[in-house]
Amino acid sequence: MPVTTLVSYSVQRVEVMDVDGEVDASLMPALSPERITALYEVMVLTRVFDERMLKLQRQGRLGTFARVAGQEGAHVGAAFALADEDWMVPAFREAGAFLLRGMKMENFLQYWGGDERGNVFPEGVRMLPASIPVGTHMLHAAGLGWAMKKKGERSAVLTVFGEGATSEGDFSEAMNFAAVFQCPVVFFCQNNQWAISVPYHKQSQACTVAQKALGYGMPGTQVDGNDVFAVYKTVSDALENARNGGGPALIEAHTYRVTDHTTADDARRYREDAEVEEWRERDPIERLSRYMKKNGLLDDAGETAVREGAVAKVVEAVTAFELMEPPPPEEVFAHVFAEITPPLAEQRDRLLRRLEGRE
Amino acid sequence: MARLNMVEAIDQALRQEMDRDDTVIVLGEDVGRDGGVFRVTDGLYERFGEDRVMDTPLAESGIVGFAIGMAIGGFKPVAEIQFSGFVYPAYDQLLSHAARFRTRTRGQRTVPMVVRMPYGGGIRALEHHSESMEAIFAHIPGLKVVIPADPYEAKGLLTSAIRDPDPVVFFEPARVYRAIKMDVPEEQYTLPIGEARVVREGADLTLIAWGAHVRTIKEAAERLAADKRCDVEVIDIRTIAPFDAATVVASVKKTGRAIIVHEAPQSGGFGAEISAQIMERAVLHLEAPVKRVAGFDTIPPLSKLEDLYQPSVDLVVDEVIATMEF
């Protein structure tokens, strides 16, 4: 009775560009200079926007939100690989992807400023709003992927989540459903090492998130999440494979949350500054800018111009956001059901009468 | 017109609606080749194939969460949860996502979906197969909760639920599944969601129930009439969310007395909501306190003691007499 090995696995890590901006030409994705410049501009815009949102929050002009600084390489790089007809199903730390996909910045601020109307995407933008419950939205991506496939569309779904979400049961169910029904879904994990105060090694004893794919019968790959070319290339390949009927894939972007978890968090309570500093050295925007400078796509003046352009856009959006009227009271009831039910109509009317001072 | 039991009526409703609308997809555990453990989806797999009658992995949250994605993607999933006792992993998907998408996207992304499941006791089942937890679903804003009492209602209400633009939880009383046969029209028809039905008119007291216990209160009313004790009005709520307060209140204003009967645990059960609505809208018409005849606030006992837990015709008759004599 021999003992045989039924399955063995290896997990690959993809790196295209090092910290100095040097790339491996054999792995470099085919991106025109214009596309690289566009990618850089979105990443810078995301950073500037994130910094400005923090200021607004500290001034009491915006509610709690999750910062993205330092993770632009991961989520912007992934979203940059999407075609217009693809869907994106995000978690809540993907501000850059929202901007890239066509969400207006002032609407993004509107949602995080406490007005659901900011969740409405421009017509034709295939994206779901942020999902605050951790790890439950990937199932929607699986179902959406199934729907696209059933309709005969040549499109795929990108769903994004953190490494903490991989501990949730719905992560497992989503991966399994997507694999069983061969849904065109790319599961993209931003493994930023920290789920609020819990480090990765306390979240999981698996060496990588990527290897979890094996248990569901799909490929899993780790990429350097601060290397935007590696992220773009790996996600592009996985999306294309999914669109071609190749089924789902899991991609782990190995990155780091250099900021607090949200504006309500203080990360100094549970981790060392030295660790954070080490990761700041690997900043995805700096790395891309070094590559671009070496390759004649950017100079110091251009770098300043991109940043100033981003600041101007953000200032304009913040102004538009602050001019928005709050939603009228009846909005509370307006979209619970397609057609308001009698109990809701009664509750609405009672509120409106009270506000008019008639009750 | 054929005489159908509830299982056959639901099966027919699904088949006809799938014929009419090819975006309707049935999914769940064992719903395909096996036709469902209660045979509710019998014959659908053969007729529509595995793409429209999907045997899913054994994962309730997965079924409902996946169905949400299907719905947003333009389909009308009808998900079966094999027993309502196993729906709780999916409760999060219903509460946190299905019920909220319309509100949080101002109507841009919606979840037209039905989640069907057998519920309730009285069938000598094993543990986790007798619960009646409809109230915790009715408590979720953005969900509709529909509970048919007989085969005719099951077909019409399910057809409406599938055509509804919002998520509907559809509780099927397992006790009724094969207990009664009645005339059910072969052609498609709908029954309105959000409207209660006056099953029997009466002048002295209003009995209110849903699901399997509509039959209990109907029998109680008939016995009280036969014994010339009193003339009881019987209301079948049909949909506990949205709740049709108008029908109940109009009845109680006429009769002056009300008893709500349900097998769910009394405290926090939907009877409490109905009682409160009556108090808010008809208190000056009341001749006696509104009463609840309900399950105990206990785990439903297994079969040996189950009958003590379920509201019985005898108990309802006694409570009606006590209320009349108040």
SSE arrangement:
The complex is a heterodimer of chains A (359) and B (326).
Chain A: E1 12-14, H1 33-58, H2 72-79, E2 87-89, H3 95-101, H4 105-112, H5 138-150, E3 157-162, H6 169-180, E4 185-191, E5 194-195, E6 198-199, H7 200-203, E7 220-224, H8 228-243, E8 249-254, H9 273-280, H10 284-294, H11 300-323, H12 331-334, H13 342-355
Parallel strand pairs in A: 1-7, 2-3, 3-4, 4-8, 7-8
Antiparallel strand pairs in A: 5-6
Chain B: E1 2-4, H1 6-20, E2 24-28, H2 44-48, E3 53-55, H3 60-72, E4 76-80, H4 88-98, H5 101-104, E5 114-119, H6 135-138, E6 144-146, H7 151-163, E7 168-173, E8 182-184, E9 197-200, E10 205-209, H8 213-226, E11 232-236, E12 239-241, H9 245-255, E13 258-265, H10 270-282, E14 291-295, H11 303-309, H12 313-324
Parallel strand pairs in B: 2-3, 2-4, 4-5, 5-7, 6-7, 10-11, 10-13, 13-14
Antiparallel strand pairs in B: 1-8, 6-12, 9-11
Helix pairs in contact in B: 1-7, 3-4, 8-12, 9-10
Give a verbal description of the structure:
- The complex is a heterodimer of chains A (359) and B (326).
- In chain A, 43% of the residues lie in helices and 9% in strands.
- Chain A is α/β, with parallel strands linked by helices and 359 residues long.
- Chain A has two domains: 12-327, 3-Layer(aba) Sandwich (Rossmann fold); 328-359, no CATH class.
- Chain A has a six-stranded parallel beta sheet, sandwiched between helices. Chain A has a two-stranded antiparallel ribbon with strand order 5-6.
- The longest helix of chain A has 26 residues, at 33-58.
- The model of chain A has no long low-confidence stretch (mean pLDDT 96).
- Chain B is built from twelve helices and 14 strands.
- Chain B has two domains: 2-184, Rossmann fold, CATH 3.40.50; 197-324, Rossmann fold (3-Layer(aba) Sandwich), CATH 3.40.50.
- With 326 residues, chain B is of the alpha/beta class.
- In chain B, strand 10, helix 8 (213-226) and strand 11 form a beta-alpha-beta unit.
- Helix content of chain B is 37%, strand content 20%.
- Chain B has helices spanning 6-20, 44-48, 60-72, 88-98, 101-104, 135-138, 151-163, 213-226, 245-255, 270-282, 303-309, 313-324; strands at 2-4, 24-28, 53-55, 76-80, 114-119, 144-146, 168-173, 182-184, 197-200, 205-209, 232-236, 239-241, 258-265, 291-295.
- The A-B interface holds A 89, 116-117, 119-121, 128-129, 131, 133, 136-137, 139-148, 150-151, 169-170, 173-174, 176-177, 180-181, 334-339, 341-344 and B 51, 54, 56-57, 59, 61-62, 64-75, 77, 89, 92-93, 96-97, 102-110, 141-142, 144, 165-166, 194, 242-246.
